[in-house]
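#struct-pred

JT: dropping the chains for the assembly here, can someone run the whole complex?
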Amino acid sequence: MKNKFSITLLVAAAVFCSTSVFAQAVKVKPVKSKSGSTEKVAPTPESESKASKGSAVKIPVVSSDEVTDAWSAPAIDLKFAPLPYGYDALEPVIDKLTVEIHYDRHHRAYYNNFIKAIGETKMASMPIGKIFSNIKEMPDAVRNNGGGYYNHVLYWENLSPKGGGEPTGMLAEMIKKQFGGFNEFVQKFNDAAKSRFGSGWAWLSVDNTTGELFISSTPNQDNPLMNSADRMGTPILALDVWEHAYYLKYQNKRTDYIDGFWKIVNWPVVEQRYSQIKIAK
Ligand SMILES: [Fe+2]
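RK: done, full complex below.
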């Protein structure tokens, strides 16, 4: 620790949580701490609760150049993971055929085309987070398919047939602190999702420089890790608002699909992504 009063903050947000089916399916190399023994996990809700008595809640600050454990592998080594549940598991919110086509055709095509696009290039050996943080200099095929691959991994994983309800712990505290409450957060997120013109995504992310939670939307297959984003951050909740995500069941009623989304959000996964943001001193 060069300076105990200066804090260098790293992104290690959990895109795959270690206990998830996705995490078990994707074979990646373990990441070594860049700061050796000085790196530690952000405060748990319990420790934060103790620490917050009489003091402000600390907000972790993160850097987009860092990557999660699971995503630290060379991009060429990333795998197309199995869906964490059956095609019909998200019914009635998302119908079986939509999930099957969405996962097995759209998502798979993004993955295949991403691997093909990075092929023998220098991007093959780069972590996908590094590719994203330089995406404006990368070919469109990498941007569209790399984003399409990554974004859908987050999306499938942050859905669950047993989802819904509200977050707990540190994430719930921060949502209340920053948005005024869960309902206010949902309203703002919905506004971002419903107002995205054409195809794109809505996100809850952690800001790269301030560590604050923020809501945003991105066009096409862009995401907040990309240096093309209006505000960069590490996404912890993803909502796909492309028509292919809902049109068979909802047709033009994107609003109904978005309203249903909250019934299947896998909050434990979102909370784990948030809690695994690491701080290095
Ligand atoms: Fe999609």
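JT: nice. Residues 96-118 form the longest helix (23 residues). Strands lie at 8-9, 39-41, 200-207, 213-219, 233-240, 278-280.
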